[in-house]
C-alpha cells in the first residue's frame, strides 16, 4: 500500500512538472503583443532562443508536451484505479499474507521437484559422457595397437590383446511402445466384429454351407435337380391353369389345382434348410464365431506393450507442466492388460453409432425363405 501511494505521489509530481514546463515554454516562445503592459520580459528576444524558434515550430513543442501530459494522466488513472476502495483490516491483511506464504511454499516445492528431476537428468548425461569417453579411449588404444602390428611385421607380440568393453546403452534408453498402432488395430478389430454381427454374417455362412452341400454331395445334387424339375413342372401347370376356363372345365381345373398344391408341398419339402430351423448348425456357427473373436482378443491382449507409459515421458510432462499430468500418472500406475480391456470397452461404445450408420445404409432385399440359397448361389451355376 505504501509503495502504491509513493508511486502515485511521484506521478502527481511528474504531472505538475510537465504542466509547469509547458506553461513556461509557452511564455518563453510566445510572440510580444501590441499592449506593452501585457508583455512579459521573456528571453525570446535572445539569439539562442531565436535559433531555437527557427529550428522547431510551436506545433511540435505543443504536440510533445501533449503526449507527455496524456501519458502521465493515464498513469495516474491506472494508479488510482489500483488503489483499494475500502480500508483493509488486519484480518484481511493476515489472510493475504497467509495466501502469499502458501503460494510461496507451493512454488518452492515445485521448484524442488523440478530441480531434483533436472539433477537426475544431469547425472544420466554425465554417466553417458563417461561411457562415451571410455569407449573413445578404448577405440584409440585399439587403433594404436593395430597400427603397431601392421608396422612391425617381423616382431611377435606376446600377450593377448585386450578386448574392449562393450557399453550397452539399450538399458538406459526408454522403451518405445507401439501404443498408437496397437490401439488402432484393436479398434479396427472390434469394429469388424460388430459389423459382422450387424450384417448377419452367420446366416450368410449357413446359406453358403447349404449351397456347397447341394453342389458337392450326390444327395444334394439329386435334391437340387429334383427341385428344379418340380419347379419347371409347377410353372407349366400354372401356365396351363391360366388357359382353362373354371366354369366350363371345372373338373380339369380343380384337378390341376390339386396337382399344383401337391407340387408346391414337394418343393417346400425339398427346399434347403433354413438357418432358424437348423439348431445344431446355428449353435456351431455361433460358437465358432465367438471362439474366433475370443481367441483373437486374447492374442491381441497377449501382444500388448509391456508398459503403458515410461518414467521419462512422465517426467517430461511434469517439467512442461502439462494439464494431462493426472491422466498420465493414472496410466503410468495402471496395468497394461487392464488399460487394454478398458480401451476395448470404449471401442465397443464408439462402434455402436458406426454400426447403426452402416446398417441404415444397407439395402433391404426381400427374398422368400424357400428360395433364399438358390437366389444367392444357385444362379451362379444356373
TrEMBL record:
<comment type="function">
    <text>Component of the Mediator complex, a coactivator involved in the regulated transcription of nearly all RNA polymerase II-dependent genes. Mediator functions as a bridge to convey information from gene-specific regulatory proteins to the basal RNA polymerase II transcription machinery. Mediator is recruited to promoters by direct interactions with regulatory proteins and serves as a scaffold for the assembly of a functional preinitiation complex with RNA polymerase II and the general transcription factors.</text>
</comment>
<dbReference type="GO" id="GO:0003712">
    <property type="term" value="F:transcription coregulator activity"/>
</dbReference>
<feature type="transmembrane region" description="Helical">
    <location>
        <begin position="330"/>
        <end position="351"/>
    </location>
</feature>
<keyword id="KW-0805">Transcription regulation</keyword>
<dbReference type="GO" id="GO:0071816">
    <property type="term" value="P:tail-anchored membrane protein insertion into ER membrane"/>
</dbReference>
<feature type="transmembrane region" description="Helical">
    <location>
        <begin position="179"/>
        <end position="199"/>
    </location>
</feature>
<keyword id="KW-0010">Activator</keyword>
<keyword id="KW-0804">Transcription</keyword>
<dbReference type="GO" id="GO:0016592">
    <property type="term" value="C:mediator complex"/>
</dbReference>
<feature type="transmembrane region" description="Helical">
    <location>
        <begin position="283"/>
        <end position="302"/>
    </location>
</feature>
<comment type="similarity">
    <text>Belongs to the Mediator complex subunit 21 family.</text>
</comment>
<dbReference type="InterPro" id="IPR037212">
    <property type="entry name" value="Med7/Med21-like"/>
</dbReference>
<keyword id="KW-0472">Membrane</keyword>
<dbReference type="InterPro" id="IPR028945">
    <property type="entry name" value="Get1"/>
</dbReference>
<dbReference type="Pfam" id="PF11221">
    <property type="entry name" value="Med21"/>
</dbReference>
<protein>
    <recommendedName>
        <fullName>Mediator of RNA polymerase II transcription subunit 21</fullName>
    </recommendedName>
</protein>
<keyword id="KW-0539">Nucleus</keyword>
<comment type="subunit">
    <text>Component of the Mediator complex.</text>
</comment>
<dbReference type="GO" id="GO:0006357">
    <property type="term" value="P:regulation of transcription by RNA polymerase II"/>
</dbReference>
<keyword id="KW-0812">Transmembrane</keyword>
<dbReference type="Pfam" id="PF04420">
    <property type="entry name" value="CHD5"/>
</dbReference>
<dbReference type="InterPro" id="IPR021384">
    <property type="entry name" value="Mediator_Med21"/>
</dbReference>
<keyword id="KW-1133">Transmembrane helix</keyword>
